[in-house]
Amino acid sequence: MSTETSAASAQFERVLKLADLPAGSKKAVEINGKCVLVCNVNSKLFAISNICSHNEKPLERGRLGNGWIACPTHGARFDLATGAALNLPAKLPVATFEVRTTDEWIEVLV
Amino acid sequence: MSDTIKLADLKKGEARCPGAPSTQDIIAADKVAAPGWVRSESYQFLGDEDISKDRYIDPAYAKKEITSLWAKTWQFACREEHIPSVGDYHVYDLGPYSFIITRVAENDIRAYYNACLHRGTKLRASGTEGNAEEFKCSFHGWTWNIDGTHKETLCPWDFPHVEFKKLTLPEAKVERLGGFVFINMDKDAPTLAEYLGPAAKSHIDAWKLENRYIYLHVSKRLPCNWKLAIDAFLEAYHVIETHPQVAPSNGDANTQYDVYGEHVNRFISPLGVVSPHLYGKISEQDVLNQFTLGDSSAMGDTKLSVKDGGTARAVMAEMFRGMFEKATNTDLSKVSDSELLDCFSYTVFPNIFLFPGISLPMIYRFRPDPRDHRKCIYEVLFMRPLPLDGNRPMPAEPIHLEDHQSFCEAEGMDPGFGAILDQDTDNLILQQEGLEASAKPGLTLGNYQEIRVRHFERAVDKYVKPNS
Ligand code: FES
Ligand code: FES
Ligand SMILES: [Fe+2]
C-alpha cells in the first residue's frame, strides 16, 4: 500500500491554485515536512512523493508521460496513480497522495 | 474475355484473377480520384523456385541474422513524438542490441549504444522513456552529457590510463522520415533515401505521416519466427480461408502487388467490393453490411444503404469522408475514395509495415525474440491525423498483451480487427510447428499473389547469404 491515507491526523491541505498548474506541468511543494510533487497530466491531477525510491534523488525535473514520471537521474519510472516502480533501477514504490480541487485550489491529503 | 485467355500463352507472373476487375480498374471508377502513388503498378517476376525453410526453424540461422541482417539494415526505432523535447530519450531494443534514442537539440537526434563505457551496465533500462540532462550510470555513476561526450567519473585518479576526452558514447546512424526515427548500426550503410529507392521514397513523402499521432499501441509475443509473422501479412491470398468474415467486402484475389527496389514492396487491397471468390453469391448491400473496419470506433453506429444501381464502394466512400472528418476533427475533402477505403500495405525491410490509408491507419513492427527463434514481438500502432487545432496528443502507451490473451482484450482495439489478428496468430503456431514437422524442404509461392513474400525473403537471402 503506497497511498498514505491511514494516519488519523491526515487531512487535505491547500497547496496550489489550480490555475498555477497548467496541463503537462508539475510543481514540488512541501506539506507538513513531506516533499510532494503535484502533476497535471492530460487534465488529471496526481500527487506523488518527490523522492525517488532508487537513490533518493528528486523526481521534479523528470519527464511526465502518459500516467508515469521518469526519474531524471537513472531513469526509473513510477506510476503516477499507484506509485509503483515500472522499471529498473527502482523496485520499490514511492508514496502517492490523494488530490482534490475545491474553490479553484488543489488540495492534497497528507 | 478473360475466360478465353489460355494460361499457357502468358509469361510467368503475368496471370491475374480471371473474370475480376483489377484494383486499378476499381480505383479508376471512383468519384474522388486517387493520387499518382496509388495509380501505378510495379510488379516484377522474381523466379518460382521454393523458399528454403531453414530460415524459419534453424536457431543457427537466427543467430546469423543478428550480425548479418539486423546490424546492417535501417530500422524504425521510435516516432519523433516519443521524444518531443531536448533531452527526451526512448530506449529501442532489437535482439541483443539496445539504443538510447535521444533528442540532443531541436533538430539533432542521436542513437547511443545503451551501455556504460566503464563496465557495460545499460545506462537506461529497456523499454523505457524519459528526459535526461545527463546520462548517469546506476552502477558507479560514470556520467555522459546528452551529446554523448564524457562528463565525469568517480575517482578519476584511479584511471590514468583512460582518455576521458575520447570516451564518447558510440552511436548508430540516425535518419528521420515522415515522423519516424530510423537507425542503422552499419557505418557503411547507404542513406535511408538510397535504401528505399526514389519511387518508394516519393510514396512515403506523399503521405505526410509526420502529421499523424499514435492513439493506440498494442504489443504481443507471437508463437513463430519473426519472418513467418511478416510473411503472413504480405498477401491477401489467405483472406478467404483464414478470415472468411472479411471476404464479402474485400477484393482479395484481385488485390494488386508491387515491388520497389530491394527493400520496399506493397499491396493495394480494395475494400468495399466483393471478393471474386463470392461473385454471384452476395449483393452490394451485403458488401456494405459486412465491411470490417480497423478504426470503426471513429464511425459511430450509422447504418448505410445502397440505392438501386449504386455500389457499396461509392456509398462507403461518401459516408466515410464525412464520418472520419467529424470523428477525428480533420479536413478530408481532397482525400481520394481509395485512400479512405482501401488497405495499402507497404513493407520497409526488414521489419515494418506502413498502412497509409485512412480506414486502416497503422504501423506494424516485428522484432525477433533474442532468446527463442520460434517467437517474435509484434506491435501494432494505430495512427490518426493530427486534430485541426494543431495540438499533438501524447503518443499512447504500449499495451503489452500476455501470450494467451486475445487482441480483442486490448482496450481501444476494434473487436472486428482484433479477431482478424487472432485468426492470423492461430495459423502461425500451426505453420511454425508444421514446417518443423514437414518432409518438404521448402515453401512454394504463387507468382503474383505471393510476390511480396518472395521479394522479402530475397532481401533476407541477400543479407544472410545462405551459402556463406
Ligand atoms: S535516483 Fe531515481 S532512478 Fe536512481
Ligand atoms: S558500469 Fe557504469 S559506472 Fe561502472
Ligand atoms: Fe490475415
From TrEMBL, chain B:
The record's Pfam families line, in alphabetical order, gives: Rieske (PF00355), Ring_hydroxyl_A (PF00848)
A GO molecular function assigned to this protein is: oxidoreductase activity
Protein keywords? 2Fe-2S, Iron, Iron-sulfur, Metal-binding, Oxidoreductase
Q: Which domain of life is it from?
A: Bacteria
Residue intervals of the Rieske domain: 74-183
Which cofactors, by name?
Fe cation
Key word Metal-binding present: yes
Any keyword Iron? Answer: yes
Its protein name is: (2Fe-2S)-binding protein
